[in-house]
């Protein structure tokens, strides 16, 4: 029997990290000011809270950009959801297991994992904002802005050449009339 519940990170990049939930309220996010800081770009700076009260342990998403899922079900922001031993959580794209055997339920020696594909659209990602995932995400915006600047610069250059030709023609015409 565990003294405190634990969050066990299952995602490859952070696999093996274990966090004990020793306080009644634990904040999670990408920011160092959080009780649990996971430096993953898919987590918001203040992603969610784990809350303990007389009714048990709960998770509450704090309006995170990429959302929180409990056993593959998206959570509504600012609502508390009860947790039970072996629940699988997705914080952005980081997968975590809630591990807490309080001894109230008999221990089952098998693990059951299932994915319900009927409740989700095929090809949909749980991550809403991929711009957080890559430092190169804004390259398209940068190249579009550069292309716009080149086009505007080209039009301005052609305009200056035409204006120069018009001035040259006017000067030549005036010189011929004077002579």
What is the N-to-C order of secondary-structure elements (H for helix, E for strand)? EEEEEEEEEEEH
Shape: rod-shaped
Mean pLDDT over all positions:
83
What is the CA-atom radius of gyration, in angstroms?
29 Å
The largest sheet, given as strand count, sense and whether it forms a barrel, is:
6 strands, antiparallel
Number of helices: 1
Helical proportion, percent range: 10-25%
Order the strands across the largest sheet as they lie in space.
2-1-11-10-7-8
Molecular structure report:
The relative contact order is 0.13. The longest helix is centred in the C-terminal third of the chain and has 40 residues. The strands form two sheets. Strands 2-1-11-10-7-8 form a six-stranded antiparallel β-sheet, with no helix packed on it. Helix content is 22%, strand content 25%. It has 179 residues and is of the alpha+beta class. β1 and β2 form a beta hairpin.
In short, what is this structure?
This protein is an alpha+beta fold. The chain is 22% helix and 25% strand.
How does the SSE layout of this entry go?
Blueprint: E1 6-9, E2 18-20, E3 25-29, E4 36-37, E5 48-53, E6 56-61, E7 68-70, E8 73-74, E9 80-82, E10 87-91, E11 94-99, H1 139-178
Parallel strand pairs: 3-4
Antiparallel strand pairs: 1-2, 1-11, 3-5, 5-6, 6-9, 7-8, 7-10, 10-11
Name the features.
single chain, 179 residues, alpha+beta, six-stranded antiparallel beta sheet, five-stranded mixed beta sheet, 1 helix, 11 strands
């Amino acid at each position: 029997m565990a003294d405190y519940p634990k969050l066990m990170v299952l995602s490859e990049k952070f696999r093996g990290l274990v966090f004990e939930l020793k306080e009644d309220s634990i904040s999670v996010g990408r920011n160092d000011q959080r009780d649990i800081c996971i430096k993953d770009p898919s987590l918001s700076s203040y992603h969610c809270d784990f809350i303990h009260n007389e009714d048990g342990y709960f998770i509450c998403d704090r309006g995170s950009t990429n959302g929180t899922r409990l056993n593959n079900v998206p959570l509504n922001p600012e609502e508390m959801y009860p947790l039970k031993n072996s629940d699988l959580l997705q914080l952005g794209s980081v997968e975590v297991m809630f591990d807490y055997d309080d001894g109230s339920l008999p221990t089952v020696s098998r693990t059951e994992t299932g994915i319900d594909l009927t409740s989700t659209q095929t090809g949909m990602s749980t991550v809403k904002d991929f711009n957080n995932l890559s430092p190169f995400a804004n390259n398209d915006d940068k190249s579009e802005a550069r292309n716009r600047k080149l086009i505007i610069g080209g039009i301005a250059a052609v305009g200056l050449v035409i204006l120069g030709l018009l001035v040259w023609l006017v000067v030549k015409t005036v010189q011929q009339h004077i002579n």
